[in-house]
Write a structure and sequence with these properties.
Chains A, B: InterPro entries: DNA_Rcmb_RecR (IPR000093), Rcmb_RecR (IPR023627), Rcmb_RecR_Znf (IPR015967), TOPRIM_dom (IPR006171), TOPRIM_RecR (IPR034137). Chains A, B: Belongs to the RecR family. Chains A, B: It holds the Pfam family Toprim_4. The structure is a homodimer of 199-residue chains. Chain A is an alpha/beta fold and 199 residues long. Chain A has a domain of 96 residues: 3-Layer(aba) Sandwich (Dna Topoisomerase Vi A Subunit, Chain: A, domain 2). Chain A has 9 helices and 6 strands. In chain A, the strands form 2 sheets. In chain A, strands 4-3-5-6 form a 4-stranded parallel sheet. In chain A, helix 6 links the parallel strand 3 and strand 4. At the A-B interface, helix 1, helix 2, helix 3, strand 2 and helix 6 of A face helix 1, helix 2, helix 3, strand 2 and helix 6 of B.
């Protein structure tokens, strides 16, 4: 025991947060006790509510407290016939903020990673196959990250879609807007050249 | 609304923590939802318990859920006749870890800072004066930080003690153990010279 039992317990529990160690946990605990007890109580309630009620959307697997998330529940989106496959709910947010895409999503909540024992079922590809079979999907847009695991996952999903003769596309790889050629890595440049478009 | 209402609420509430903004709050929320719901529920309980039950020690003002903290409740410490004045509970921990000091503490929970409107009463100096009057204190050790505010606070407390003819000492300023002279600032060197001791 270092401080009082309840204070030690609070500091210990703060360490469940990512990249929070002993010193940061102490700083958080003292900050809340000294300056914002009301905020801390609200945080406590928000944590309990979120952990007890937030589930995965039945169709797209994103986090939601309803059976279907708002996007899946929209009939306009359902009628689009397009599904964009992403790795995380944050990716959905990033795409939604562009206001350009009006179709459905499927959130893998990760990527294939045999080395960590994460196979197709762990990222919900059985649910995804069911979704393809049940709905009238015209196009699957693969928007997994441009990492080795993301590419492997995209490749695997591409095969799933090929078996069902559904058109699959991969988001473009190339020079980011505002990017300068001299600082780009070689493989991005190779992609930028091979993916060039006629003006 | 960005995600679902409960998730947005959780992300919003995480921002009460020091140096946590939108992105870190999102990362914390998703980390707990995906990987550690049980830990999150424990954190929720620990927060509520701590905020509802932790008060200030009646005598030394540190955080405790009892009326008197463990140190103030110890009769051996009470008999020492020494009070060490520090700025925060973390300072108490740092001193306790040396196992060298066996007296009582008084925790200011801050320092005098007229510019922020923090006067003697806000750092409990009225409680401290009462403690001096009520108990048989032989020595007050001033262990506030070696900053401008810490020094000003130490000076103010020194005057309080002088009025009551109680011996006051200030912890030594000088070269830290392992410190190299060439990298020390000038004022620390001046203190190290003026505080030199005969061998």
């Amino acid at each position: 025991m270092k401080f009082s039992p309840l204070l030690d317990e609070l500091i210990e529990q703060f360490k469940v947060l990512p990249s929070v160690g002993q010193k940061t946990a102490q700083r958080m605990a003292f900050h809340l006790l000294e300056r914002n007890r009301e905020g801390a109580l609200k945080l406590s309630d928000a944590l309990r509510n979120a952990m007890e009620h937030i589930q995965h959307c039945r169709q797209c697997r994103t986090f939601t407290e309803s059976d279907l998330c708002d996007i899946c529940a929209s009939s306009k989106r359902q009628a689009s016939g397009t599904v964009c496959v992403v790795e995380s709910p944050q990716d959905v947010l990033a795409i939604e903020q562009t206001s350009q895409y009006q179709g459905l999503y499927f959130v893998l909540m990760g990527h294939l990673s045999p080395i960590d024992g994460i196979g197709p079922k762990d990222i919900g590809l059985d649910v995804f196959a069911g979704m393809l079979d049940d709905t009238d999907t015209q196009e699957v847009i693969l928007a997994t990250n441009s990492t080795v695991e993301g590419e492997a996952t995209a490749h695997y999903i591409h095969q799933l879609c090929q078996e069902r003769e559904i058109k699959t596309t991969r988001i473009a790889q190339g020079v980011p807007v505002g990017g300068e050629l001299e600082y780009l890595d070689g493989s991005t440049l190779v992609h930028a050249f091979s993916g060039r478009r006629e003006l």
